[in-house]
Design brief:
The chain contains four helices and no strands. By secondary structure, the protein is mainly alpha-helical. The radius of gyration is 17 Å and the shape is elongated. About 5% of the residues are buried.
């Protein structure tokens, strides 16, 4: 069933567009999506949040909280 639905989409962009525009679900960024993740979504092993449930926020960048501060290169 999941492989049949995956074959319906020509690309990741089609999958993302369908989930976002038609079903109103939040999909992670494209670079985080792979074929196995999409199969798990279609098989209902994983679930996506509805767009209205997602809260977007901009977090300021502080030098004190940077990776360089906590994990210095040796």
């Amino acid at each position: 069933m999941a492989s049949e639905l995956l074959a319906r989409f020509q690309s990741k962009e089609d999958f993302i567009s369908y989930m976002t525009n038609q079903l109103q679900l939040y999909v992670p960024p494209e670079k985080m999506l792979n074929r196995d993740f999409m199969k798990q979504l279609l098989a209902e092993d994983k679930k996506l949040l509805e767009l209205r449930q997602v809260i977007h926020c901009n977090v300021p960048r502080y030098d004190e909280l940077s990776v360089k501060k906590f994990w210095p290169l040796l």
